[in-house]
Amino acid sequence: MKERHLGRSGLLVSRLGLGTMTWGEDTEPDEAAAQLVAFVEAGGTLVDTADVYCDGRSEQILGHLMRELVDRDRLVVATKAAIRPDGRYDGSRRHLLRALDASLDRMDLEHVDLWQLHVYDPATPLEETLSALDEAVVSGRTRYAGVSNFAGWQIAKAAAWQKAWPGRAPIVSAQLEYSLLRRDIEREVVPAALDAGAGLLPWSPLGRGVLTGKYRTGIPAGSRAAGDQYGDFVRPYLDEECGRIVESVVTAAEGLGVSPLSVALAWVRDRPGVAAPIVGARTAAQLSAALESEDLTLPGEIRAALDDVSDMSPPPP
User: Fold this and answer.
1) Cα 101 from Cα 271, distance rounded (Å)
2) Is 178 helix (H, G, I), strand (E, B) or coil?
3) I need a surface site. Which of 57, 158, 278, 290 has the fewest CB within 10 A?
4) Please, which residues have CB within 8 angstroms of residue 261's CB and are 6 or more apart in sequence?
5) Tens-digit pLDDT profile for residues 270-304
6) Is 230 a catalytic residue?
7) Of the listed 53, 144, 178, 215, which one is catalytic?
8) How many secondary structure helices (H) and strands (E) does the chain include?
9) Virtual torsion, Cα 20, 23, 25, 29, nearest 10 deg
10) SS3 171
């Protein structure tokens, strides 16, 4: 698997990241182990987790696998903080540094490679939140700092604050939802991240699973959209407009002799500023299908057609 620099930093990451949000809930430890082995054998390095994923079990499983199965030095370990277990946002210095210490304990690590602010907390002064990133880097608990789910102006403000004084930890990454079904971030969020020198880490690059084509004829039993927990998460992408985009992806895939998943993933992987889409698979088989996209580069005419059909910008006045 090829590598890319994360933004304007010197950190190299594989151009596909492994998401672990379901580890410890929908994905059992044995299945997580199979995923991690397959990912590393394919040349993958970037593994993304968070302190709130499955109440910390995701980090615990990852830590166990790094002790028993995969050499930690082969991985770029990324985690996040700023959401309390009760769902409240908390960007205070007190909460963030305690959360980072807890993450390190769960993974049995001295440091992570990338520590990200999971959300923007409007109730805490941004300079206080960012001071926690500085402390984490200076103390050696993380090597790099990033943000997640920030609006464009929030990325710009955070990056400008960090650049205003020598020694502050720069913002090297921005994790956000980005796919053929979610391109509205191209108006402000993506330009802000590019200007700040932050590499994009798209989450849900397959449109919450819809771009795989599995919902074309209905909602399959056992799928996320069929359940209570994730149903509301998937259904917004099951409307007629999204359906047209999915059909275009399927048509492109048939013409290229690949899967719709590979087409959708290759499209977002090669967008300007993208370092690595984060793929969260429930099974090793699903991950293997995503890894197949590594060999695909979309022809220019197909990319242009997908750009056109998925353009959700408002018409000119």
Assistant:
1) 35
2) coil
3) 57
4) 206, 211, 212, 213, 289, 290, 292, 293
5) 999 999 999 999 889 999 999 999 999 999 999 99
6) no
7) 53
8) 11, 10
9) 170
10) strand
